[in-house]
Amino acid sequence: MKFIGIIPARYASTRFPAKPLALLGGKPVIQRVYEQVCNVLDDVCVATDDERIETAVKAFGGKVVMTSPNHKSGTDRCCEAYHKVGKGFDVVVNIQGDEPFIQPSQLEAIKACFDAPDTQIATLVKPFTPADGWDALENVNSPKVVIGKNGNALYFSRSIIPYMRNKDKAEWLAGHTYYKHIGLYAYRASVLEEITALPQSSLELAESLEQLRWLENGYTVKVGISEVETIGIDTPQDLARAEKFLQEQIMKE
């Protein structure tokens, strides 16, 4: 199977404008992401609506596609970019442009989901541990996933699911394995075409999670499990933490 990675990257961001171009260890964040994934997939390109990002990607030798500024989600942007780079790939991998420490093992885990011929969409989760604590589990910006016996997602929620009845909250993390969603998606190319044509659903609007649109319309989402903790960059404070983490990694080498 042939896999293409597409990295949606917007310049405008309420919490962190120009985030893809922010420097991390002397390189733009978008370059860090690109370099982490380019050797694991058959092809990679950045999908953006901003000429400044296009210029930056070309400057470090990356592939870039200009897309409409009107997309409501990264999935929609991926679909347009896929059309523009030309077909011929079996699976499109949607890679978050603010995950500069994404690991090859995570990409391999999501690729492995497509060893099953019936996989339509795949994503990753990481188990919460008791050491993560209640605040991490309760964080609404960290969606939780319930997984069925067949390895498919049953539901995604910003709430804590499942609710553990008759147990003190202090016991929840020790008494059940909760899964944190990692925002890495992969879609069979034909399925990507279909899901981007769907109207927004009631569950999606309620939780502000686009993957609920797919479940609500009967699509299956295969779940790969990763033990890797990454550092996403949503704010300037996150960038400072990422810089510290990068320097610590360099010191270890």
Structural summary, described in words:
With 253 residues, the chain is of the alpha/beta class. Helices cover 34% and strands 22% of the residues. It is built from ten helices and eleven strands. The strands form two sheets. Strands 1, 4, 5, 6, 7, 8, 9, 10 and 11 form a nine-stranded mixed beta sheet that branches. A two-stranded antiparallel ribbon has the order 2-3. The chain is globular. The two termini are 34 Å apart.
Average pLDDT number: 94
Q: Kindly name the structural category.
A: alpha/beta
Largest sheet: 9 strands, mixed
Q: C-alpha Rg, in Å?
A: 18 Å
Fraction of residues in helix: 25-40%
Number of helices: 10
β-strand number: 11
Strand content: 15-25%
- Runs in which pLDDT lies below 50 for 5 or more consecutive residues are none
Q: Categorize the overall geometry.
A: globular
Listing every helix as H and every strand as E from the N terminus to the C terminus, the arrangement reads EEEHEHEHEHEHEEHEHHHEH
